[in-house]
Amino acid sequence: MNTEPFEQYESEVRSYCRNFPTVFVSAKGSIQKDETGREYIDFFCGSGALNYGHNNPYIKRKVVEYLENDGVLHALDMYTAPKRDFIEYFEQNVIRARGFDYKIQFVGPTGTNAVEAALKLARKVKKRQNVFALMGAFHGMTLGSLALTTNADSRAGAGVPLNNVTHVPAPYMFPGLDTVEYMERLITDDHSGVEKPAAIILETTQADGGIYVLPTEWLQRVRALCDKHDILMIVDDVQVGCGRTGWFFSFERAGITPDIVAMSKSIGGYGMPFAITLLKPELDLWKPGEHNGTFRGYQLSLVAAKAGLEYMLNEHVEDAVREREQIVAKFMREEIEMIDSRIATRGIGLLWGVDFGAFEGDVAKAVITEAFKNGLIVERVGRRDSVVKVMPELKVPLETLEKGLKILAQSIRNVVSSL
User: Fold this and answer.
1) Bridge-based pairing state of the strands 131-134 and 205-206
2) CA nearest 294: which of 144, 120, 77, 70?
3) 406: burial class by Cβ within 10 Å (0-12, 13-18, 19+)?
4) CATH of domain 72-314
5) What are phi and psi of 89, to 5 degrees?
6) Alpha carbons 387 and 352: distance in angstroms, whole number
7) Which tens digit of pLDDT belongs to each residue from 303-344?
8) Per-domain residue ranges of the chain
9) According to the UniProt entry, what is the EC number of this protein (predicted)?
10) What's the CATH superfamily of 4-55+316-417?
11) Residue 274, by phi and psi: left (phi above 0), alpha (psi -120 to 50) or beta?
12) CB 411 within 8 A of CB 374
């Protein structure tokens, strides 16, 4: 297998390929195939960009038809039929159908673009510079988003100070600390030394932070805190949105309405680059062109995105996730945690983590390497990269789900038994 061009000419910044040293050539549903013809079950899902699986046939047909009819592919932010179709379908069948009222801002094609727009808008509206973010957060790699992100290695790559963010402990970090009360003290105490924020930004489930599901009551209290002190609540649904947690919007389980929502990854439907920022209408204080990007609202992504929404609703994907959640939760509890008392598992929907933080050495790395040898693609996240992240296609066939989980369990047994 020839990997020399990558190793010789591609930048050393490449990362995922180092964990999966093969050349992939095709993919369908939950299965990827490499140049040798070997198949792998994909429990990585493009880090959340492929919620509906590889080459979903429904979405694929819509994309191919649009290409065959010579549809407009690039239009900046001009009016086009695909944009109109997406806006109308998303607003009527998803946003307003769930009782929300958001305008849609088309930003650059990745999640960090959606977060950058959210930050700029919050600071513009509230005329304050500071933002509260949580420890364990990952919000992107451009400078504004990176200032929110807490991973030390990622932050070190900035090369400049990362300012105007106050990081507060996530609710799981210190059991005896009421982190909402802590934030209120920072806001109200004239000796806290902390500027009142324009916004509080969070992921309702920290994914790259180690798979931590933030409690429903805690999310509701943060919403109330924001209302009390005239602070905007931003939810980053880039990775955990689009049905991943069992609800299309991850915050629906808490019965809250954020002021701004950042979305990307699977909103593109087919793995297409696409990102949007949702904002309450009264916050839409942008001047024309004040935030833009050459590839905002790429037309083929809009086609795939609308098809992805149709598939999500027509195929009852949220129900499918909740059904599979019970299977994964039971397997984690009865098969994986039983391997060793030091193993912890946690998750929601089809986003689960197997935590090896109590072990000495890089056990999670050994597990994902062993799993790959056995035909399963999983990644690792969290502090010291000690958590194996399990993230299947949302309608993964039950037999494939079971097979992948069994490969994971056996890989863990193989690694732990050799320690």
Assistant:
1) unpaired
2) 77
3) middle
4) 3.40.640.10
5) -70, -45
6) 9
7) 999 999 999 999 999 999 999 999 999 999 999 999 999 999
8) 4-55+316-417, 72-314
9) 2.6.1.76
10) Aspartate Aminotransferase, domain 1 (3.90.1150.10)
11) beta
12) yes
